[in-house]
Amino acid sequence: MKPQLDDTGKLKCSIEYTLGKIGDKWKTVILWHLGVDGTLRYSELHHLLPGVSHKVLTKQLKELEEDNLLKRTQYNTVPPKVEYSLTSKGRTLMPILQLMHTWGREHGEGF
Known about the structure:
Strand content: 5-15%
Largest sheet: 3 strands, antiparallel
Helix content: 40-55%
CATH topology of the domain at 26-98: Arc Repressor Mutant, subunit A
Distance between the termini: 37 Å
């Protein structure tokens, strides 16, 4: 695996790299829902994430799309329809997210 460099040319830790891609508050939850529930529309995702603003959700979805972890499909209908699904690269995160899910259920309170 080729070492990653930060903006100053220093080597990056692989965990730091991963967290840079999925570490924002809502990204892992978005990926989890798409992996478990399959393709979802924007409104369905927003409903599954109580507390997230439209601005933040839109930003997180755009960044995940730019990192090729999810695919955005827009249908030219009236009203407009947009769906999100995991890419093959995004699906490779599911074992990690499954472990996080299991750990949270085993160690969290009230789940």
